[in-house]
Amino acid sequence: MTDEELIQEIREGSRAAMEVLVKRHYKSIFAYVYRKTGEYHTAYDLTQEVFIKMMNSLDQYRDTGKFSHWLLKIAVNHSTDYFRGRRFKQQHRESELTEEALPASDQHNVWNIFHKRLQNEQVRQAVISLPEHQRDAVILNYYNGLKIREVAELTGTNESTVKSRIRLGISKLRELIVGGERDETYRKQR
């Protein structure tokens, strides 16, 4: 069934159609929100809230484009609202880092796992450190696979602005990730 057929069934009261629609789009929305926030539990909560907003505003959805873009727009707006809100500021002050335990089967390869986690964390922190408008453009374009035009529509900006934000964001990421390593290597060689 297409998203539009599922929406029609939801409007007629089908809970099964609602579950199918949510399961179909959950991973992509969670991935966007997680990349935006960088915190698993916060991303989980915000993703749930996005789907609640989706259900509450489903009657406003008009078959004018792809449903996935409409839903991603809700996620973009909800994430933006979260970062502007009191809840983020409070959680940001109280946040503590927690580390997952390694599975027993992977303990023989601890160094590789540690190194990969360190690299992933470095990239995640670099993306989170970007200004919000650049972070949105980079995440939507590279991680969600949206075209420049689609990113412009979702963020309410023009295409040239999106291109500029992506270019600047990638440049800053390269500087943060590769530039820092280059500086350390250079210092060690001297």
Task: Provide a compact summary of the structure.
Helix content is 77%, strand content 0%. It has 190 residues and is mainly α.
Task: Characterize the largest beta sheet: strand count, sense, and whether it forms a barrel.
Answer: none
What is the CATH topology of the largest domain?
Rna Polymerase Sigma Factor, Chain: A
Helical segment count: 9
Q: Approximately how much helix is present in the residues? A: over 70%
- How far is the N terminus from the C terminus? 63 Å
Full CATH superfamily name of the largest domain: RNA polymerase sigma factor, region 2, helix turn helix motif
Rough outline: globular
Would you identify the regions where 5 or more consecutive residues have pLDDT less than 50?
A: 93-108, 182-190
Written account of the structure:
With about 190 residues, this protein is mostly helical. The chain has nine helices and no strands. It folds into two domains: about 90 residues, Rna Polymerase Sigma Factor, Chain: A, CATH 1.10.1740; about 80 residues, Arc Repressor Mutant, subunit A. The C terminus is likely disordered.
Task: Outline the fold blueprint.
Layout: H1 3-11, H2 15-37, H3 40-56, H4 67-84, H5 86-94, H6 110-129, H7 132-143, H8 148-155, H9 159-189
